[in-house]
């Protein structure tokens, strides 16, 4: 598989949460977009990075 895709473990590490938190978020419709490939969850690196940037911009608004 291309390095452009991350496993849930790698994604959780990149965004600083546990794998179980990431799994919970998926079930709640929260977190970075994911791709189910034949029952295996993968995250595209660009989707994860875009989600992180979105969180940063939203957090800046909370203090306003």
CATH class category label: Mainly Alpha
Radius of gyration, in Å, reads: 12 Å
Find the CATH topology: Multidrug-efflux Transporter Regulator, Chain: A, Domain 2
Q: Major beta sheet, specifics?
A: 3 strands, antiparallel
Number of helices: 3
Report the end-to-end length measured between terminal Cα atoms. 43 Å
Residues in β-strands, percent: 15-25%
| Spans of at least 5 consecutive residues with low confidence | none
By CATH, the architecture is named: Orthogonal Bundle
Mean pLDDT: 89
What oligomerization state is this entry in? single chain
What is the general shape? globular
Number of domains: 1
Q: Which sequence of strands runs across the widest sheet?
A: 1-3-2
- Helix/strand class: alpha+beta
N-to-C SSE string, H for helix and E for strand: EHHEEH
Helix % is 55-70%
**Tally of strands:** 3
């Amino acid at each position: 598989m291309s390095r452009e895709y991350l496993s849930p473990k790698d994604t959780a590490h990149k965004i600083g949460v546990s794998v179980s938190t990431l799994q919970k978020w998926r079930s709640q419709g929260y977190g970075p977009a994911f791709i189910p490939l034949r029952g295996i969850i993968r995250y595209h690196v660009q989707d994860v990075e875009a989600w992180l940037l979105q969180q940063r911009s939203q957090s800046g608004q909370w203090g306003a």
